[in-house]
Amino acid sequence: MRATSISTSVEFGLRFVGIWPGLPYGTVIWLSYMTCLVLALYFQYVYIFDRFDVKNISDLIDALSIILSVSLCGLKLIFLWSNRRIFYDILLTMEEHWNNVDIYDKSVSYIMSGNADLSRRCSNVFISITAAATIYYCMTTLVRRETEFNEKLNISSKVLPIKMEFPFEVDASPLFELLALVQVFYAVSVACLITMINCLLITLVLHVSGQIDILRRELLTICDDETSQRFSIVASIRLLISRHQGIITLSDNIEELYSEIALMQFLSNTVAMCCIGFTFIGSLRKDGASVLMLKTAMYYVNVTLEAFIFCFAGEYLSAKSKSIGDAVYEALWYNMPPAECRILLFVILRSQKRLTITAGKIMDLSLKDFTSFVGLFRLGDESIRFVHVGAARDVLAEISYYLCQAHPS
What we know:
Elements: H1 8-16, H2 26-50, H3 57-82, H4 84-99, H5 106-144, E1 148-150, E2 155-157, H6 173-220, H7 230-282, H8 289-330, H9 338-352, E3 358-359, E4 363-364, H10 367-371, E5 375-379, E6 384-388, H11 391-406
Antiparallel strand pairs: 1-2, 3-4, 5-6
Helix pairs in contact: 1-6, 2-3, 3-6, 3-7, 4-7, 5-6, 5-8, 6-7, 6-8, 7-8, 7-9, 8-9
């Protein structure tokens, strides 16, 4: 097994966009990919502005939801690139943890290897599901052979998987197939990169949780030997406090790396869910409504899963951080002299300030916030209503409160 928590698929994605540390010509690779991404976004926005029509509003909303996802991917890559120094420090800390595994017994190696194996499996499964869902999303348009009929000339024009407006005709046979293939690769790469960034968060949180489990194990066994000397106990406590501070620093770096990304994720998902609901309702009266609803439902599940990953990671990290204080309390502290017992009180007090991931320093990510974010499809008598449970209202209220606190005037 590779002595790292980063899976091969996540590392490949980071190398693909030039963010992996030590990569030759990483800046050139990142600029090249971002240039291609901006160029593709330009053609997508041109389609929106040129084809804007109330009669085809459902198709435009469908195209807008894809544009929001691509724009979100570009913003995430920009924030990762701007915070790459923090990302490099996180990777160096993780590498240091893996290099020190041989100092401890086999149980520590089992804890780190188990979390690393879990993160690799989650990354591979999520990326594979995303790639398959994106390919299906693109192929439904090609398989159904949707056409736009010109009533005067009675000529059908082929439809590309991703709605773009090019300055040239794309109906010619070789060019259309080539553009369709490029668009499928473009859509799959963007979707996998978004999932890769989410899987990277899972990997980092699982690594931190593994270090917390190791620290809890050491705290529980620090005083189990009654014949231990006072000096060795004090030295062990100092070492554990230093490791606890290292965990806090690592968690703060992860929170700083993903804080703005999480805020963009929730704001974008709020708008995307509204677009999905409108597209779902607009597809009821169209031919092939079942295929369109299935495609929309898969996209809705993907958007909801992204929000769940961020909230679950924040909840899991918070629960793990609070368990440090429980481990100190459950230790055999009564075998220690009173002076050393008082030192452990500071560890309990520090662990009460839980580690978490915030969305733009505005709100903590937790499962409670996720339940207030998700949308529900409710069936009515004659129509389907899309109900969004106050996510935009809550986020705007938090932003307003934060601004009022920062600028009372």
